[in-house]
Design goal:
By secondary structure, the chain is an alpha+beta fold. The strands form 2 sheets. Strands 1, 2, 4, 5, 6, 7, 8 and 10 form an 8-stranded antiparallel β-sheet that branches.
């Protein structure tokens, strides 16, 4: 307004739309309108489940995983690095326990076992693997007393790098926090060896309580 002239109500009304537009531009997208669930203090909406299965390697909590009867030269962590020459081997005999824990609940659709070092010693390849869902601290004394969630019989063809993952009984793997693998038998070798392990599936849509507390 010109100096010495008091703004009228009409002139202020004329300025209002411009100010509102500036405010709307500055506001975060999630603050505009929206349903009541988007009100302040509500937890963020869980991402939509697109139904696609993904590699769950980034969901593994390595600090909570362990192996029993593993070779110190070929520990279980080698299974996740993508080099089958540096896989995991058992130590005293052919049996091996591998416990994989996730940092959140997941649905596991399939598992890819890969042969050690391109199958140079096929006698070490696992042939019978038992899976136990959400069982913690399992040892060899436990595997005979607990019914496995699923039993997998592996062939040499299943272990090839270009072979398809083994599909699981999906209904039994809908809310998985951990899977314990028990390699019970191999193809006649003194020890068992695997070159790689990958699990495929997707996360379970749940509220992240950490995010909820941050907004409280």
């Amino acid at each position: 307004e010109r100096e010495g002239v008091v703004p009228t109500t009409a002139s202020l009304r004329n300025q209002a739309p411009t100010q509102n537009q500036q405010l709307a531009t500055m506001m975060m997208p999630g603050m505009m309108g929206g349903p009541a669930g988007a009100a302040a203090g509500a937890p963020p909406a869980a991402p939509a489940d697109d139904g696609k299965n993904k590699d769950l390697s980034d969901k593994i909590d390595k600090s909570q995983c362990y192996a029993r009867n593993e070779s110190s030269q070929y520990p279980w962590t080698n299974l996740l690095i993508g080099d089958t020459r540096l896989g995991c081997k058992s130590d005293a005999d052919e049996q091996l326990i591998l416990h994989i824990e996730f940092n959140e609940f997941v649905k596991v659709h399939s598992i890819k076992f890969t042969e050690f070092n391109s199958g140079r010693d096929p006698s070490e390849a696992p042939t019978l693997v038992k899976l136990y869902v959400n069982r913690c601290n399992m040892g060899f004394e436990d595997v005979e007393d607990v019914d496995p969630t699923q039993v997998i019989e592996l062939t040499a063809a299943d272990l090839k790098e270009d072979a398809d993952p083994i599909k699981l009984q999906f209904v039994k793997f809908q809310r998985v926090r951990s899977i314990t693998f028990f390699v019970e038998e191999n193809d006649g070798g003194d020890v068992s060896a695997m070159g790689g392990l990958k699990l495929f599936g997707r996360t379970v849509a749940t509220t992240n309580m950490k995010d909820f507390k941050k907004q409280g």
